[in-house]
Design a protein that fits this description.
The chain is an alpha/beta fold and 222 residues long. The chain has two helices and 24 strands. A hairpin with a 4-residue loop joins β23 and β24.
Length: 222
Amino acid sequence: MTKPVVILGGGGDGLVAAQLISHIFQADKSLRLAGFLDDNLEKGSRIDKAEVLGGLPDWSRLPLDIIFFPALHKVKQMIQRAKLIQSLAIPEKRWAKLCHPSACIADAVQIGVGSMIGSHVTVQPNTSIGKFVSIRAGANLGHDAIVEDFAYIGPNATVSGKAHIKEGAHVGPNASIIDACKLGPYSVVGLGAAVTKNVERQALCVGNPARKIRILSDTEAF
């Protein structure tokens, strides 16, 4: 049976999620896009070919067979975004998981609700992926890695075996995280960085090898 999915959020991540749902529909008809909810767009307007059905709080007015996907990741703003997602109080059973048909996911992998696995992603055995995680195209997650809730793994990034990406951490495109390394909650690893040692909470790190630029405060963009 095909399940209708409504995306929370519009352009950017919303369009990425919409395209992923289209690829899933083409592959096995298990999901189809039913529209968007966006606080910044007028009800009845369109994003690409799909209708905006209202704002985020309007989820509760939609039919019970609809499931939801949150396209709300944004670097340096994940504390706010996580609180927003949780405040909606959408039942866990009504969150979708999006896994691109081309992804290579080992049998023993756990994936939480509201998470996205993009095209050509490789997830090796015994990896654990939490809720509301975004793993973008071409990323590689090594064996026994842990990716906690609300984390983001950018396109073509590598998370090596037994690495631990904590809640809300952001790994930029083409970045690499060495084996058994830990990224602290809501830390940010920049584009192409090579992380060779643990990263503390809310640290902004760039370069090869990665170095801490500063700690992101709770008041700036968070």
